[in-house]
Every structure is written in structure tokens, then in C-alpha cells.
Amino acid sequence: MKTKDNVLSFAMNGLANSIARLTENGELRTTAVPGLSLYRKTEPSEPLTGMYEPSVCLIAQGAKRVLLGDDTYVYDENHYLLSGLHLPVIAQVIEASQEKPYLGLRLTFDYSDISHLMADSQLPPPRTQKTDRGMATGELTVPLLNAFQRIVDLLDQKQDIPILSPVIQREIFYRLLVGEQGAILRRLAVTGTQSQQVARAVLWLKANFSQPLRVDELSEMANMGKSTFHHHFRSMTALSPLQYQKQLRLQEARRLMLTEHIDAASAAFQVGYESPSQFSREYSRLYGAPPVRDIMTLRQQSTSVSG
């Protein structure tokens, strides 16, 4: 007689085999299924800064650590990671090898899809809310895992994607909404909740990070008092609005220097810094080295990998 753990393990092995086959030619594959990306890594990675968008991330083999502010999230074959809004993080693959590579996937989502599902369905009540954060891990279930397997299987049946992908994604969203972290999605999908209002301010800040930060204007946008907004923003993102803006600026400056070969001072001004020395200090604090040295190291690493 099969136990629940055995069924989950069998299903996970099947998903790992599918991702391994579909990522044979590289570490990242963006797919024909809207919002679905597949990942492979054959060795643990260095901690990397980046932005997690609204998405659910699943690992079929290996493990990953994600740092959000002072919070740490570790997920693996038994847990998924849910990011409810755009969040600047430091992520690191911590279990991977040539013999047993890290194999994962990410499915991004639009809250309009979540809202429509909630409006059209008689959803069971959510489980008890465990966190105010916009990020959380949850235990994988067999029905959720099976739904992910079916959406990955569509990559071998591309003619079916336009019809079946929305149906399977709807099932995935349903499984998440009624799962242990469903309260996060519900709060962010319902218009007028404080979580949804903070998420709207986050989107504005993400699009306008180079402008001077005015928390008064952000709190008005969220229809909250300044102190209330500040409290809810930090509760959801683990960062203050200023810290959030700073990470966005530094990430964009790093991208400009690395990919567009812009010098440090020009990158600093372009992302909104008025003082190159302040930029250099804050950059060193986040990335562990001054801008010029950091970019030089990244280029050397890229050359050695490509060679």
C-alpha cells in the first residue's frame, strides 16, 4: 500500500526527469507556456541578488535559500516558495551536483487571474494565516505537484498549450488558494485590502525607483496614514520603503555597469544617487566590494565560464 510520502516522492521523481530532459542544453529555459521557466544547476551557486516577482517556485531536485531582509526561506523537494509581490532578495542554490543537479521551475502569475478565480468559485475558507510577509514557503501536496507535472507535459504538446495551459494554471492557483499559504494570495487579490494597497505602492516604487522617495505620497497612494503604511510595507516586504528603493537602485546600477559598460559614477546618477561616494559605500555594503572591483570580478567569472 502506497503512503502519501511515497506517492509524493514518485510524482517528484517524474517531474525531476521531465525538467532534466527539457533543460539538457542549458541552465535556464523560458518556455512556450506563459509564465513558466525551468532551471538546472550542476553546482551550488554564490549568493545572487535579484527580484522575485509574483510567482510560485518549486524544486524537483536540490534546495535553495532565499534571503528577504533579515528573513531566511529554504525550500526543496518537499516545499514550494510563494512570492506574492515584487521582492528584492538574495538567492542561493545550496544543493546541486553533476550527478544530482538542482532542477526547479517558476510560474509567474497575474492577480487578475487570482481575483477572477475567487469571484467565480465557491472557495473553501483559507487555512489560518501564518504570516504578514509577502513571501512564504508551504508544503507540497500530491494534487499541486500533479498539476505542475501536467503543465510541464504541455511542452511536449505545444498545440495544446493555448487551450489547456489556462485550465491547468487555474487549478494550480486553486490549490494554492486553499493551501496553507492561501491567505497571502487572497489578501493581495482582493481590492481595497491593506495588502493590495501596499502591493500597488510597491509596483509604483519599482517603476519609479530613481525618483526621490516621498513616503507621504506613497502612503496617500495606499490610502493609509504614514506610520500605518510604513508598518504594513515592512510587514509585507521585510524592508522599509527606503531600503526597498535602495536595493532596486543598486541592482539596476549593477546591471548597467555589467551589461551596458557604464562607469560607476554615471550608473549612480542614472539610478538616482546624487553622491557617488554614498553610492560606492552602499554598493560595497550590499555586494561585498566597490563597484569597479565587483564588476571586474563578475566579468572574469563570466569569461572563465564561457571559456
From TrEMBL:
PROSITE patterns per record: HTH_ARAC_FAMILY_2
Domain HTH araC/xylS-type: 199-297
UniProt entry tagged with the keyword Transcription regulation: yes
Domain of life: Bacteria
InterPro entries recorded: Homeodomain-like_sf, HTH_AraC, Tscrpt_reg_HTH_AraC_N
Any GO molecular function: DNA-binding transcription factor activity
Protein name: AraC family transcriptional regulator
Species in which this protein is naturally found: Desulfatitalea alkaliphila
Lineage: Bacteria, Pseudomonadati, Thermodesulfobacteriota, Desulfobacteria, Desulfobacterales
